[in-house]
Amino acid sequence: MFDRYEAGEQAVLVHVDFSDESNKEDVNELQMLVSSAGVKTASVLTTSRRAPHAKYFVGSGKAQEIADTVQAVGADVVIFNHQLTPSQERNLEALICCRVLDRTSLILDIFAQRARTHEGKLQVELAQLRHLSTRLIRGWTHLERQKGGIGLRGPGETQLETDRRLLRARVKGILKRLEKVKKQREQGRRSRKRAEIPTVSLVGYTNAGKSTLFNTITDAGVYAADQLFATLDPTLRKIELPEVGHAILADTVGFIRHLPHDLVAAFKATLQETQEADILLHVIDYADDKYLEYIDQVNDVLDEIDAGDVPQLIVCNKIDRLEGVEPKIDRDDTGRPIRVWVSAQDGLGIDLLRSALTECLHKAMVEYQLKVPANEGRLRGMLYNLNCIAQQSYSDDGDWLVDIKMLESDWNKMNKQLENRLTNYIL
User: Fold this and answer.
1) Where does this protein hold GTP (predicted)?
2) Is residue 275 part of a domain?
3) Rounded to an integer, what distance in angstroms lies between the CA atom of residue 245 and that of residue 225?
């Protein structure tokens, strides 16, 4: 589709240090992303700016320096640690004479390499097509050479319009197939709810050790490696917890700062496992100096996918890399577990994690007696769908008296949907 330079294995990396915190990226993280994509770093160029340059993102002098470096090291691709506009990519490619990728394109490429399941491939393709739709115009500069006159007039529909139409049709087809996958997942979740099987979802920054922890707890044998985005396709396994019984543990894709919106939208069906979970195991690489930043980044993404209200149990992982840190459980003032210190690699503290998880899920149930007015049909439907009604009757004035028992997370979600009206009906 594109008349563009082919990407190769030698890359020049470009990192801009902005004074604005919201635009800041980590140059080490870029190198890890590039390594995960299977590309070798030939050179790293850094610069500082207050704001991006409109034409080249970097200044014209730095852009020329990038072009000279590409020639000197024989690089095949230039990768920016930031999001570029289509025009900035086009201008840079014209100057540097090689392929230019931004951070979003790099992450999409890694996801495309990692996708194994049919659903994962569909989600990645959807994200790529949405990203591509804003950049179609670059591939067809030859159309600008069309002229009027006999034999030189273009067709009724230009090639660009044809591509846009084909792309829209492909996106529509993928969305239709993903909707089918979403319904299948929802059916599975409803079955688990009816059987009162709680779901535990692993979340955390990419490369925090989620898949290793998942394998240690479940013996699932899923792919785990010391690289960014080793896991892409979600995996669900049944685990046994004392006093709770069966529970479902879900391993999900890792988060990263400034996760592309196209990816968040495309992975809605997968991320719904996180939204619908009864508790989140937030895995943190405690041996990383920037773990506090990563916690904030993960919580930002959780808010973005409407999973910010789901209860969390913090898992401080990789304590084997720290001196003097033993497996333990930290509790809040009420005695509820809030942090567990483990090493998923060595299996340290896994029994403590199971114990803390059992406590959290066992205490995550709430019981209330409600007096629901006759005009609250929506609330009645929600309670029936959650299969949480223990006993019901009617008062003389027609109000519905109902005893309910449900997970605290379900209660909080329902209360939020009803704009905090639920508390008015508690007897």
Assistant:
1) 204-211, 229-233, 251-254, 317-320, 343-345
2) yes
3) 31
The total of structural domains in the chain comes to 3
The residues, ordered by sequence, that sit 6+ positions from 104 with a Cβ below 8 Å of its Cβ are 83, 131, 260, 262
150 labeled part of a ligand binding site? no
The annotation status of 154 as a binding-site residue, yes or no, is no
SS3 186: helix
**Distance between CA atoms of residues 72 and 43, nearest Å:** 10
Residue that finishes a domain, picked among 330, 361, 392: 361
CA-based angle 19:25:29, to the nearest 5?
Answer: 150
Report how far apart, in Å, the C-alpha atoms of 393 and of each of 216, 335, 375, 388, 396 are.
47, 36, 16, 15, 10
- The answer to whether the beta carbons of residues 152 and 146 sit under 8 Å apart is yes
Tell me: is residue 207 an annotated ligand-binding position.
yes
Expressed as residue numbers, the domain containing 409 is 365-425
Same domain for 283 and 304, yes or no, is yes
Q: How confident is the model at residue 344 (pLDDT cuts 50, 70, 90)?
A: confident
Hey, how many other C-beta atoms are within 10 angstroms of the C-beta on 109?
Answer: 20
The answer to whether 120 is annotated as binding is no
Instruction: Put the strands of the sheet holding 279-285 in their side by side order.
Output: 235-241, 245-251, 199-204, 279-285, 312-317, 337-341, 328-331
Residue 317 labeled ligand binder = yes
Global pTM exceeds 0.90: no
CA 411/CA 405 separation, integer angstroms: 9
158 is in an annotated binding site: no
Q: Which helix (H) or strand (E) holds 32?
A: helix 27-36
Asked if 307 and 401 sit in the same domain, the reply is no
User: Tell me, what CATH number does 354's domain have?
Assistant: 3.40.50.300
Q: Which residues pair with 404 in a beta bridge?
A: 368, 389
The residue among 42, 74, 101 that closes a domain is: 101
Smallest Cα–Cα separation from 326: which of 314, 345, 344, 342?
342
What amino acid is encoded at 24 in this protein? K
Tokens describing residue 278: 């009864």
pLDDT tens per residue, range 51-93: 888 998 898 899 999 999 999 998 888 999 888 888 898 899 8
The verdict on whether residue 252 carries a ligand-binding annotation is yes
Tens digits of residue pLDDT in 297-339: 888 888 877 788 888 899 999 998 888 888 899 988 888 889 9
